[in-house]
Amino acid sequence: MNLMVFGAPGAGKGTQAKFLIEKYDIPQISTGDILRAAIADKTDMGMEAKNFMDAGKLVPDSTIIGIIKDRLAQDDCKKGFILDGFPRTLGQAEALSELMSNMNISLDKVISLNVPDELIVGRITGRRVCSSCGASFHVDFNPSKKEDICDYCESELIIRKDDNAETVKSRLGAYHDQTAPLIDFYTKMGVMVELDGTKDVSEVTADMFTALSK
Ligand code: ADP
Ligand code: AMP
């Protein structure tokens, strides 16, 4: 299975990707997680990306496409993968198509989680993420079993630097201007599945697995 979870920041992509990993035993490729790891490691790429991320802007395509090219070439992607937060621009989507075509593979489904902007701010400001495995929780809508401790790996939950009301505005702006046009791109490709992402986490998961079984 070569899958993509798609949607606005805070739509629930990372949350649903965790269930896809469990079911299909394929890796999640989150460009956001890869960039945050590069920042933590203080690499040149991380330091360059940090300013864009802190401002809620997209990191340049050349950097992101380089990351994906290296990641998809790794052995664990041979049995499939879940793209999360990539692509975010038409240029990235076109580069992905070319890359996959060169690898003789294709996308099976794009799962789009539709959530209106009014709900996004509350989701992002209440988000808590695992400092180790990146799992995503919410103080009200999807709390961890133990406060501030990850259900999956027991590491500490933290608030992401870019998860504040200020940055959400520019992130939503970038989503509508640069990323939302990809809905059309993947609909035309015949792989798009649009789901109501406002339902409870477990209902969205059930809808997603129903769509994937068709
Ligand atoms: P994304 O990866 O798309 O940025 P996340 O999966 O991190 O989004 O989800 C954003 C926030 O919303 C998290 O705090 C998460 O726990 C919460 N969340 C995810 N799905 C739902 C849902 N269906 N209903 C309510 N809250 C949700
Ligand atoms: P995310 O973890 O997906 O919410 O991404 C956090 C931030 O990383 C975004 O606001 C962007 O600054 C950057 N980023 C992640 N993925 C991409 C991408 N595919 N293209 C451009 N910027 C990205």
Structure, described:
The chain has a single domain, classed as Rossmann fold (3-Layer(aba) Sandwich), CATH 3.40.50. With 214 residues, it is α/β, with parallel strands linked by helices. Helix content is 48%, strand content 15%. The strands form two sheets. Strands 2-3-1-4-8 form a five-stranded parallel β-sheet, sandwiched between helices. The chain has a three-stranded antiparallel β-sheet with strand order 6-5-7. The longest helix is centred in the C-terminal third of the chain and has 15 residues, at 165-179. The mean pLDDT is 96. The radius of gyration is 16 Å and the shape is globular. The structure holds adenosine-5'-diphosphate and adenosine monophosphate. Adenosine monophosphate (AMP) is lined by residues 9, 31-32, 35, 52-53, 56-59, 64, 85-88, 92, 171.
Uncertain ranges? none
CATH topology: Rossmann fold
Q: What is the total tally of β strands?
A: 8
Which ligands appear in the coordinates? adenosine-5'-diphosphate, adenosine monophosphate
Helicity, in percent? Answer: 40-55%
Give the spatial strand order of the biggest sheet: 2-3-1-4-8
The largest sheet, given as strand count, sense and whether it forms a barrel, is: 5 strands, parallel
Radius of gyration: 16 Å
Function: Catalyzes the reversible transfer of the terminal phosphate group between ATP and AMP. Plays an important role in cellular energy homeostasis and in adenine nucleotide metabolism.
Pathway: Purine metabolism; AMP biosynthesis via salvage pathway; AMP from ADP: step 1/1
Main location: cytoplasm
EC number: 2.7.4.3
